[in-house]
């Protein structure tokens, strides 16, 4: 989280932990899911989330 705040600016990051069951780990950007542990079957690797964010921002 701290790395994302440093990279994109703390005023641009709004992270929210939503408790659930079953090891759900989703990352949503502007209402669009950009990563899902459920879909991939694994937690993201280092730098995978920033890459997904950058890709989404470039393609807007």
Across the major sheet, the strand order is: 1-2
> How are helices and strands ordered from N to C?
HEEHH
Secondary-structure class: alpha+beta
Please tally the helical runs, counting DSSP H or I stretches of 4 or more residues.
3
Radius of gyration: 12 Å
Number of domains: 1
Largest sheet: 2 strands, antiparallel
Mean pLDDT: 86
List the uncertain runs. Answer: none
What is the rounded distance between the termini? 23 Å
Per DSSP E runs of 2 or more residues, the count of β-strands stands at 2
Helical fraction equals: 25-40%
Notes on the structure:
The protein is of the alpha+beta class. The chain has one domain. It has 3 helices and 2 strands. The chain has a two-stranded antiparallel sheet. A hairpin with a 2-residue loop joins strand 1 and strand 2. The longest helix has 11 residues, at 48-58. The radius of gyration is 12 Å and the shape is globular. The protein starts with a helix and ends with a helix.
């Amino acid at each position: 989280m701290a790395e994302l705040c440093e990279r994109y600016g703390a005023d641009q990051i709004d992270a929210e932990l939503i408790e659930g069951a079953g090891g759900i780990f989703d990352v949503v950007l502007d209402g669009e899911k950009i990563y899902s542990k459920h879909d991939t079957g694994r937690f993201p690797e280092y730098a995978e989330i920033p890459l997904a964010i950058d890709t989404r921002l470039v393609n807007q």
